[in-house]
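Bench notes, afternoon.
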Amino acid sequence: MKRVASIVAALALACTAVGMFAGSLLAQADEAVYEACSRYKQEIRAGALPEVLDEERCPVAGRVIVDGGVGAVVPEPGMAVTAEAASAGGGQHLVVSNPRGDKILLDDVGRETGSEAPPKLETRALSPCQDSFYYSRDVKLYNYSRWYVNGRSIPSNLSKSGAVGAMGRGGVNVSNVRDVCGIEDGVRGRLIYEGGTNRSVDIRSNASCTSNDRKSVVGFGDLPYGYTAFNCLWSWIQDGPDRVAHTDIRLNKYDYSWTTRVTGSCRGRYDVESSMTHERGHTFGLGEAPEGSHGNLTMSEDSNGPCQTSERSLGRGDAIGLNRKY
């Protein structure tokens, strides 16, 4: 009996010690979260926060969550925002969700595609019509989206009508599943151009999404060097894929030159239609494909470069991904 009693006592002490140690770890975690959420910080690193954040203990409303090279202001309750950019160092993306209640959800934190291990050499050379890879995000354009262009932002070397036309064709390339692989259009959902606007995109020059003004705008402007374009997509949270509400797109005119007509005399200019085709893939719910192993797809994270139009048409994976979503 004495031996049994001593074993029980030892187990009790061990459990107490484990509980104290766990409690100490939780307290340290709480301290770290509270430090990250200090009211003096307007920007908060996503990596310092848990994936599910109790907003009562860490109020973040109106502040910017940043991860890698992108960021986003916490959206209004019932909405999510996806910030997405492509750079030479790899894809950058972050999802901040604010379901009704007191919890903020963070996704894709620290999972930039540029951090992936280099692919094997034999996986690098698939042609667009051989590559069936796609990455579908949990968001969908259910019916239509009205969009506008900030004409004042268009570079002076481009005609406004030519730039707007190229932007529109980029959207049609996605909504009509225009590809060279013989895959038919199965997408239900359209983009409706409503004309010009004086409103700027809800995007800061440091590649972060601001608060949503409920108007989808495309324009040119400043972004960090290495980003040709940046996309902010706001969606309503619901069962099934979230419903696309608005999406703003900025093309970087400070570090890159642009054209709407790629000719033999083109030198160093990026094609507006090609870039917009990629960005509209995000509008319709596709994420970016890893560049190293799927670089010939339109939705790969990097552009194929200046003076080319190959990304105006979708690859096999791009087209399959869209049709399976819709």
